[in-house]
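#struct-pred

JT: dropping the chains for the assembly here, can someone run the whole complex?
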Amino acid sequence: MTKHQADLSLLFHALSDPTRRSILTRLAEGPARVTDLSEPTGYSLPTVMRHLAVLEEAGLIASAKDGRVRTCAIVPEAFKPVRTWLDEQRLIWERRLDRFEAMALKAMKEKDE
Amino acid sequence: MTKHQADLSLLFHALSDPTRRSILTRLAEGPARVTDLSEPTGYSLPTVMRHLAVLEEAGLIASAKDGRVRTCAIVPEAFKPVRTWLDEQRLIWERRLDRFEAMALKAMKEKDE
DNA sequence: TTGATGCTTAGTCATATTGCTAACTATCAC
DNA sequence: GTGATAGTTAGCAATATGACTAAGCATCAA
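RK: done, full complex below.
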């Protein structure tokens, strides 16, 4: 598996959990401390930490510690490979449809003759 | 968890595996039989079947059996919730940036006075 | 310096995931 | 009907995931 594919897998996997998505949505509003992210979810701190680790490994968030407090922030560019992959799939599919349409048109013309 | 969130989790999870993504890419080119999908991956038929089941549960593909042969096809609309979710996150983040910029502009003006 | 706060680590548990092989069923071609 | 083909089911093993509690460490406030 290429590095790109591995990155995509990490990204999609990170996004596949509803708790992690809710954390991302919260962080889209602005940076937050670990405890701030833990409270609304109702999950224990270690559990949230693990989710944050998954998000950080995927590159979707960045975090830094200042004193006792770790602040997390979203990394908007990190979503790009996901969008790009979706676009690529759509392109392949649309090209196929175009060919299909061209064939249908050709068939109609030949029928006309 | 709402149904929508559950659907999103299924979708992202389905997309998180490189073998499943390669199957989708193949199917974007056009429908294919199970064996056609198995051969290029190098995985056993039962393994591929399982991947197909995951994709079908997520709604990303549809399949039908004719005689002995099961034909699988991509369901392009199924990607839409993923795109929508990404767009929503981006919107939240952009709104935040706008507010931030507005604040900065205001601060600059006040400094001018 | 002592206590509260914020995070981290370690260890456990249940379940899910991803691969396999072996055996089975259903269909098609002779 | 016999054999090859296409898919399916069952069951196994290794690893990953997602939750928890309990205990630890570092920092800040008084």
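JT: nice. Chain A has one domain: 3-112. The two ends of chain A are 51 Å apart (CA to CA).
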